[in-house]
Amino acid sequence: MTRARLRDLGIIIGTHPTGPHNAITDVAGVRVGHCTLIYDEPRIARTGVTVILPREEAAWDDQLFAGFHVLNGNGDFTGTHWLEESGLLTTPIALTNTHQVGLVRDTLVNWEFSHRKEEYFALPLVAETYDGWLNDINAFHLKAEHVYQAIQSAAGGVIDEGGVGGGTGMICHDFKGGIGTASRVINIPSGKFTVGALVQANHGDRELLRVDGVPVGREIGYDKIPSGWDEPPAGSSIIVILATDAPLLATQCKRLAQRATIGLARAGCVGHNGSGDLFLAFATGNHIPVPHKKTYEVKMLPQQQMNPLFEAAAEAVEEAVLNALTAAETMTGYKGRTAYALPLDALQAIMRKYRPS
Known about the structure:
By secondary structure, the chain is α+β, with helices and mostly antiparallel strands. It has a single domain, classed as L-amino peptidase D-ALA esterase/amidase (4-Layer Sandwich). The protein has 8 helices and 14 strands.
């Protein structure tokens, strides 16, 4: 069967409606770009980089409130110490593999200062998950030009998912994983708002995988779809980026980031010891222009209206992980290892078995 998104398979997660593209880019101004490297010579490359631009204006000139949360900390996300301290997102966000965080970070600094009007410091936000099972990670395939390609390709609308960009070599619940996205729209007394999620999914055991509560992973044994390895890859991680156009303060963004945990738990993530489960949420509903020369007037959503945003975040994260799985294709890479795609026909049959109506 041709790869498809979860809803294209007739499987609906949650109760809130999606945005027009069911993607993080449904939050106005958010753009996403990928650069994907797949080749076998001179060394095996199954890797890439994904860049998220948080709004149309440069983040360093029009900063955003943001918050960060860690479920299990066996991973790296640069720039988050200052984000936690200041409550502000001031740079793009990039996702890549474990050994190329430094290269991507330095390139983002270079790119920023080729555009900025004033000299200042930059602490770019770059997160990683480990793709060394399918990718010859110590070949250091990514170069600055690839980060620039991801930035230049960043756009709104439909986002490529599965084995693309930073998610190229990733494995999720013992199937091929990668990049996934989803969104939700909510109506509350303060207005109509969108919550979007993007994940780089490289986590989880097969027996734990659930789709809308159905134990899909247990139904697809290794006799049906092999794992591709005798011993599972060491470590596993997921990066979650949440965006909303609601007027949230930094503390509220942190509260929103924490709800990624709920969405992941619904899909079967428990935050294993070797996992880097790192979540960032940002809100475009306030503007913090630079330079900082005066008092700002900001808006704040009442805490009593946060519940629908929490629900939207959990639903979007859950569906984003599943979209990564249903979009990703079987991939063979480093040392001939293979990560097999989640079989979509089997997924549909299992869902009908548990939900016949």
